[in-house]
Amino acid sequence: MYIGRTQMLVRKISRVILNKRAESYVISAVILAGVAIAMGFAVLAWAQGRSSAYTQEYSETMNAETAKLKERLAVEYIVYNASAHEIWIYLLNWGTIDDVEIQTVHVRSDSWHLIASAFTLKFFNGISIPDQDLDMGEEGYITVSTGALQIGGYYYVRVVTVRGAVFDSTFVA
Amino acid sequence: MTRLSWLKRFSRDSKGISTAIGTILLVLAMFVISSNVFLFTISQNTLYSQAVTEGHQTDADRFNEKIVALNGNHTVDEDEDEVTVEAELTNAGSVAAQIIKLWVFDTYPTNQRYNYASLDLNLNPGDAFQSVVTVTIPGAQTGHNFVSYFVTARGNTVPVTAAEVNGTIVAQVALGIGKVGMDFDTFIYYNVSGYNLQVWPDGKEGYNVPKGKAMAFRVTLTNFDTNKRTISLTSHSALWMVFPTDNPQQVRSRWWYVVNVNGNGTILSTKKDTFSNIPLLYAVPTPVYFASYNDLSVSDFGTSSIDIPGFTTGPAAVNLMLFGTIGASTFGQNIPFVSVYVT
After folding, report:
1. Do B33 and A36 lie within an 8 Å CB cutoff?
2. How many interchain CB pairs under 8 A, A with B?
3. Domain range spanning residue B114?
């Protein structure tokens, strides 16, 4: 009895598979349409995702570049302390954006180059600046240990901010 | 008619319509997405361009900022270690400017120190301002040279330029006449009555002077020391006249020692040791009065007149004998600067 039912089911399925009559068009049309719509939505979602990612990246890049453009640092004075072997760089943020943070300071002469990134930004009165950045109109100084410099030598200083802006100055040790 | 039949056919015929609709929807979707991206890109580019423009404007403002600091002068209070910087600030640019700092440097080899003063001076285009700012520099002395500059809120630096000096006088100083210049136009004498100078303050033109009358002389001196040190005149300074006499082998002379005079033309240093040294600041014309027969560090004030045996009238050579200090050093100079005619 059970075997007979199974056989009947197999026959039915075989008939459905092997049947080339009208209902196969409908099913295939539905399947094709479904696949096409699904793929369409998938492509659409992918395109939307890609465009969103692109716009977000672009936005971040442009915001960063715009912020960098607004940064302006002026070096008020640089002095070399020969006894302590360090230079003091007095800075003023005269740009149109807050939070100008210093990433690195390059000190170089014709045959020598020093990159410093460990320093503390202080107010002119010597008190450490809490947020370690310069807001608009704010002044501060950093001290960079340089080792012994040639007294009377001409040195170049490059201040690089976290946003990537570069400000150059010079001093005589 | 043709149009209606085409519409009827299109509305009744559903074959292939889904493909067209699907294509249209897909194209629309892609168009919307790409349009969004494009418009977003444009807006971001606009923002960036705006930031670039603002940056250029900021830089242009900085370049157009032009402050000049002329007639600068540094004076030192050695007791207080204070350096006072005087300068005439003028906004000669086209934008308003704010001065936020003054840096002062002592360039003396053994005292190369610096300090600054925070300021808040706002200058519109064309504005001028006489600034007097004092900073503390330990070890600063009058004889030291100082360099100073102002800093604006846009980060520009404005060096303080020393007082401009008349070229002729500079040439005279360079030729060896000395560190002190004299204004020939203001050389006058006064008749002295008691301790009063008459007629105050104009006196009389000093190139013709009377014989036998108590007189005082006013000489306007200017310190042109190239190191800009202050000269301080002591009571030994005197105006000295030499007269040709009947006997050429006998040199006759008369002198008038320096005195202190108040604003009413009254001599203040009338007693011994009451004379106060007279400072000659760099590039500042200063009237100096010579009236006493005696050096006020030696004895009390006494009048002096031209009353020379063997000399009646005629020309006389006048010298200035200046003594004192210049900066931290001793100063002494004899200036054969003018002649008078005694009547």
Report:
1. no
2. 74
3. 67-162
